[in-house]
Amino acid sequence: MKQIIRRLARVGDSSQCRSANTNGKNSGLRQSNVREVPEGHVPVYVGEEMERFVVRTELLSRPVFLELLRRSAHEYGYEQRGVLRIPCTVRVFSTVLDSLLSGDGAHSDADLIRYIDCDA
């Protein structure tokens, strides 16, 4: 896990961006030329279409994100170069991210993990 987090600090180049900003709402940036990653955030690429999301690093310690990172390591290995890829659909990742950012506690991490399991 430490290897993945160290790599995250070095990753950050793509021409497609969907940003989850710090106020908990998605800014909706897609297919823009934004290449910079705000401090305290990390870019991840999701699904076969490799859609880019910029995620707050504090979310990486959540159990559902740890599960997604574990699946990424299993799918792509720790030696993967370049970007951090998350092996789930964009729809599922968006739902998980929106739930985490809403902060309303409507879905537990266990519920979200079951949700990504259903899509696998």
Give a written overview of the molecule.
- It comes from Rhynchospora pubera.
- It holds the Pfam family Auxin_inducible.
- This is Auxin-responsive family protein.
- Belongs to the ARG7 family.
- The structure is a single chain.
- By secondary structure, the protein is of the alpha/beta class.
- Helices cover 38% and strands 13% of the residues.
- The protein contains four helices and four strands; from the N terminus they run αβββαβαα.
- The chain has helices at 2-8, 63-76, 90-102, 109-119, and strands at 18-19, 41-46, 51-56, 85-86.
- It has a four-stranded mixed β-sheet.
- The protein is globular and about 35 Å long.
Walk me through the topology:
Layout: H1 2-8, E1 18-19, E2 41-46, E3 51-56, H2 63-76, E4 85-86, H3 90-102, H4 109-119
Parallel strand pairs: 1-3, 2-4
Antiparallel strand pairs: 2-3
Helix pairs in contact: 3-4
Provide a short characterization of the protein structure.
This protein has 120 residues and is α/β, with parallel strands linked by helices.
Gap between N and C termini = 22 Å
Strand-residue fraction?
Answer: 5-15%
Structural class: alpha/beta
Shape: globular
Stretches where pLDDT is under 50 for at least 5 consecutive residues are: 9-33
- How is the largest sheet built, in terms of strand order? 1-3-2-4
Number of strands: 4
Task: State the helix count.
Answer: 4
Major pleated sheet: 4 strands, mixed
Tell me the helix content: 25-40%
Q: Please state the CA-atom Rg, rounded to the nearest Å.
A: 13 Å
Mean pLDDT across the residues is: 76
Element-level helix/strand string: HEEEHEHH
